[in-house]
Amino acid sequence: MPTTQGETIVAIATAIVAQQGSIGVVRLSGEKAIAIAKQLFTAPGKQIWETHRILYGYICDPQTKEIVDEALLLLMLAPRSYTKEDIVEFHCHGGIIPVQRVLQLCIQQGARLSQPGEFTLRAFLNGRIDLTQAESVAELVSAQSNAASQVALAGLQGKLAQPIRELRHHCLDILAEVEARIDFEDDLPPLDIDLVRQQLQEVLEQVTQIIDTAERGELLRTGLKVAIVGRPNVGKSSLLNAWSKSDRAIVTDLPGTTRDVIESTLVVAGIPIQVLDTAGIRETADQIEKIGVERSRKAAESADLVLFTIDAQMGWTAEDTIIYSQVKHRPLILIINKTDLTVENTINYPPEISQKVMTAAVINQGIDHLETAILDFVKTGKVAAANSDFAINQRQAATLTKAKVSLAQVQETISHNLPLDFWTIDLRGAVQALGEVTGEEVTESVLDRIFSRFCIGK
Predict the structure, then answer these.
(1) 213 touches 391 (CB < 8 A)
(2) Does the pLDDT of residue 253 top 50, yes or no?
(3) What is the dihedral of CA 58, 62, 64, 68, to 10 degrees?
């Protein structure tokens, strides 16, 4: 991301919604931030302009002298600020007009509208945070659950960066030992090859453990998409309503009531779950219902997990067989609903279905068993390793995988008794990859990819 650190940048740092926002923050960062603030802000009385102090006053247009807003001004002088530059925040009244006018006044006084993530980029470039912490900022802002926010906070506190740095330093120590033997072979004792192998194996195992947190991180960040699929009138909408504790879906005794995919977002054991209540799948002449059925099939295809729902009263029907043939290649849990309306517990369903849950959605029975079954699916199929405070993202996983490959190649080089010069090639590769995770070695294109995904103002 191209950026000129000498420039003063400005952005609206809060979500602005007409008639709903009580406070709107306009943030400045850079060497002209204080000068611009003094041009625009009048603080009555003897208020002192000093760092980490809040001033009360008025924002005025310096050309017309018109009062734009009554506001608070927060000063954070370098280096004790988010960017390690001078930062000024105007805390205005919320809504669209006040903050937009203040933003334009700042630009007229010489500030430049910031690019997405540029405040955090400056914090990284100025050494206040490393790259893992910068990414954690974005993840904290977008967290959809308590668990996701805790993982992001752990990254922000350096719990990921610390072990990565230690592993990198360990690799650098091994590299230094090897290069010393190349340059001063006659002056040093022989290299302890078994010790080097052991050290490399320890680093490799720790890198592997960190990589294993990637699936957990992805799950916490993006959540799980679950589609409720089945014939019309088997209780799919009742299941959604009981599970979400709401009346999101219309429930009647008439088949085909649900004509489109209805979404609801839940959190189960810290995992965001997007639940899709689909239209009953059946052959129909109704054109609107046909569209709903087609959307149901697409929802099932895109879902991480299908809850294939049948009617306990009717048992497994020929229609169920047809629908099952369309979704059986997807991860699937069989939901036998309406168990409150029958005493018959024996239902012949395909033997390859390994998980089933009995529910009576209209009386809220079996929902806890459903959540347990989903969590079992998550543990066995989505997150093999979850015993960590942190969880890496896709970029970090890809970079650590490069380090893992390099470390494995060093071991192979040693086993083939190749010269020490060959060892250093892959050792440097591992050092570089580990440095890319924390930002100690990173290209501008990587920074561009990371920070372009941030929101403006952060």
Answers:
(1) yes
(2) no
(3) -30
